[in-house]
Amino acid sequence: MSASSERGLTHVDAAGAARMVDVSAKDVTARSATAVGAVVTTTEVIGLLQSGGLPKGDALAVARLAGIMGAKKTPDIIPLCHPIALHGVTVDLTPGVDRVEISVTTRTADRTGVEMEALTAVAAAGLALIDMIKAVDPAASLDGVRVTRKLGGKTGEWVRS
Question: pTM of the predicted model, to two decimals?
Fold first, then answer.
């Protein structure tokens, strides 16, 4: 057994080669995950977002759809992520003074969690938003992408402290 496997890394075999974990013996349970992040921008951009004055159009609507699409495409871009049936994706975008807070909750009933789908959705929504505002703010950034809560499976509920 490799040192990686001894430490409990599940995505490598005894020889250290990458593998997709076999989850077929796991129970199907209701699962959800919430991830967050923020697009940091300028007060000028926030004003344009709220007034509908951005040159490319409704940036929040585009970002919301990009987040949903990102969640659905997660196993296509994260190599060892299982394709699962998503039963719900909620993308909330909340403009603040100099940022847009992004919160995504994903839901399924499956054998593995939906944390990666929630994270990918936050990233996709944030990147789409940056694409929509970059003409006005080329320095906009996507910050703080992280899981804040997950529910379901054998570990039950986990909440970031």
Answer: 0.90
> Is residue 119 a known part of a binding site?
no
The CATH number that domain 26-159 falls under is: 3.30.70.640
What average pLDDT values come out for the chain (161 residues) when binned by 10 residues? 49 80 88 98 96 92 98 95 96 98 97 96 98 97 98 92 92
Domain boundaries, the chain: 26-159
Q: 117 a known binding residue?
A: yes
DSSP readout, the chain? --HHHHTT-TTB-TTS-B-----TTSPPEEEEEEEEEEEE--HHHHHHHHHT--TTS-HHHHHHHHHHHHHHHHHHHSTTPPP--EEEEEEEEEE-SSEEEEEEEEEEEESS--HHHHHHHHHHHHHHHHHHHTTT-TT-EEEEEEEEEEE-STT-EEE--
Active site annotation includes 131: yes
11 is in an annotated binding site: no
